[in-house]
Amino acid sequence: MPLGDYVRNSQIWKSIFRHPAPKDRRNRVVVMLTNFFLHLHPVSIRKQGIALSYTWCMGGITFFLFLVETVTGVLLMFYYRPTLEHAYNDIISLGQVTTLGVLRELHRWGAHAMVIAIWLHMYRVFLTGSYKPPREFNWTIGVILLVLTLLLSFTGYLLPWDQLAIWAITVGSNMARATPLLGHEGPGAKLLNVGGVDLIHSGSDARFALLGQRFVGEMTLLRFYVLHCVALPLAAALLIAIHFWRIRKDGGISGPL
Amino acid sequence: MSEPTKPAETTAASPAGTAGTATAAAPSATPPAVPPPAKPPVKKPGADRRFFLFTWMGIAWTTFCASMAAMALGTVRFMFPNVLAEPPSSFKAGVPGGYEPGQVVERYKQEQGVWLVREGNTIFALSTICTHLGCTPNWLENEQKFKCPCHGSGFYKNGINFEGPAPRPLERFKISIADDGQLLVDKSKKFQHELGEWGSPDASVQV
After folding, report:
1. Which domain range does residue A201 map to?
2. ipTM of this model?
3. Are B177 and B189 in contact (CB under 8 A)?
4. B90-206 domain in CATH 2.102.10.10?
5. Binary contact (B134, A174; C-beta < 8 A)
6. Under 8 Å CB-to-CB from A94, ≥6 apart: which residues?
């Protein structure tokens, strides 16, 4: 028996791949349907759907970059410590000491590319009118994913803990001072007081919750680290799964105009 | 619950059925002189279950939702730390006589975020937070101005903005003389020039 046949007839192979090779129409369908990783993808798509001139593959590239960011990010976590004492030096040593520390640059450039790709994806979806019913819900999911991507960029920006990072986050988080009602310099904040004592002050407003203290410091670094490495990626992964699933449920990639 | 009659009727059948067998057995076991047992009080069909549904389940769900809401609120509160590794909001800054006229003291900038400035015989405490976007300007002794490195805002020694994007002067903090004769700066109270607050007696100290 040829080796290939031996492998394909073994129990291990058959336990993983329940069906024969996708050589005929039926097996092409069932292979897609029974594979966990492939089942998010439709069984069949329009020829239009894979035309590079139509989709630019920008959604796919964005997802690919999300995977790149996940893998490189997990690797970086082995070397990076989010404390005032270590953060800056750990980033420097990733570039100068660690073998293949260029993964950190990959993570950084991948993040830039992801923001660009997500904008181009959105642009394409807009130009092809793919935000229109029945795809309006998926457009909304996409907008939330855009915001999550920008928040991932924002939180990741602080982690090198250099002057650029600290002041960029100082400037950025100062916007939260002006949150209506919940920012201590925002409109209506003075309305929230009990017996003349302000409930919303610099130690209790939205900016304080974001920073964990009154200025950008160690608590801020830790909060942004947790948001960047755990909370935001989990939320993004969940919404990405829904985003892909809804493409199929809403009738596949939109047709020509 | 617009049409409860149908399930209610079907469920009412089973208690009636058991009651029927009980009354059927009764004549054979007891003499006829004894009057038949009084009919049990007429209950609306399904009343037990409706009571259960609206009362006990209502209580249970209310309790559950209330505890979940309390936990959610507690979790929001959890994000606000109770103890901060920050210096106290007021600090003492030496005796006023130690300040030269025209001097900008940078000793408290790093720790407290405050410049102490003496102009003539007036000492005041300037915040080191740029009023544009919150960076920390530098005091340039040669040019006698505060200059922000982020976007180039410039402020005179008295804190008035004169160049760059800063929309308003630096803020001043409350300053007074403590019992021991030292200057006492209280950062929890600020004075803004554009609100006409710099004239307040708490906004500066006369030497």
Report:
1. 53-249
2. 0.74
3. no
4. yes
5. yes
6. A76, A79, A80, A101, A103, A104
